[in-house]
């Protein structure tokens, strides 16, 4: 029996073409992609201009309710504030409730990446040899809006101050697993009795030039000449890389006792969590999937369940050759004896890969599936041509009541995390 039961009482979300969780869930249910041609990438002449990005119209809506001058704050802080206000409203909470309770903020965010405007600013400090003169750079302090002036945990600090959280504040910069690790860490802190209430999840804005250059140089960005909406093809033989995306999601967790005291509506439960780090390779896991298998089995064991209890898996499913094959091999071993009773989905087929944000976004979509009994399809998936036909990936939405979902996040650097979520 767990030390303390941990409940989900609210969530907020912002993603490309969807500024709330219900809109995103409905969009994917209708098999409509959030990936499109990025005007910046096209203007720069990139071979592949597909991305999931929050556009100017969405940013106007995001900044409209910000308390203060949004232009004076990093966009990550503005987005985190927007999603946090959604989550608190959904949970029936106010910032004062966090200030009064033993509370925590666990936020996944990897880094600020400079864009072309930031680089132009730095270029003014180049010497005759074409190298940045650091002395000149330090003599000309960057404004608050540039990447060079920000702390990696700036959005965490800003949000903690707005909510009056003091007991536990942490930033997770754990690559693609950061959002899931933030939720898992909040779960652990509540379970152990360290806090009673937490806001957890991730915010990531990397759909710009430098991340594109970095991931493209690794061969991780989709190389196929396909329409933007068809480029993310998890677990298909013609997959050739992920589509860069961005977004944020935050979840309100609280102990069952705390939820009962305030008569909160419980939306779901966190049942188990595991984080297994490996030292295989910076950009890929053990090719036999053994480390992913170890992580998933540890999460199931942590929940006190058998693999047969898991009915649906929200896979990491990046659409890269190595990651998908590792995960598929691991899934076949973990659920081999009960394979016919498990369904699978890969949300990145519709949203793209928002790195730290992905795990948090996928956790929210998984919670909606548990609540509503609707399982999301994997876009661009053709069962008759799939690489791993034994895995029952959905290519159409499925109306089916389920009790337990596993959500996977397997990141660069060998950081692997699995989360088990249950019905309320």
From TrEMBL:
Signal peptide interval: none
Residue stretches making up the Ketosynthase family 3 (KS3) domain: 3-423
Superkingdom of source: Bacteria
Xref: SMART domains: PKS_KS
CDD domains recorded: KAS_I_II (cd00834)
Recorded metabolic or biological pathway in which this protein acts: Lipid metabolism; fatty acid biosynthesis
A matching Pfam family: Ketoacyl-synt_C
Keywords tagged on the record: Transferase
Alphabetical list of InterPro entries matching this protein: Beta-ketoacyl_synthase (IPR000794), Ketoacyl_synth_C (IPR014031), Ketoacyl_synth_N (IPR014030), PKS_Beta-ketoAc_synthase_dom (IPR020841)
Keyword Transferase: yes
Recorded family membership: Belongs to the thiolase-like superfamily. Beta-ketoacyl-ACP synthases family.
UniProt-recorded name of the protein: Beta-ketoacyl-[acyl-carrier-protein] synthase family protein
Classification lineage: Bacteria, Pseudomonadati, Pseudomonadota, Gammaproteobacteria, Pseudomonadales
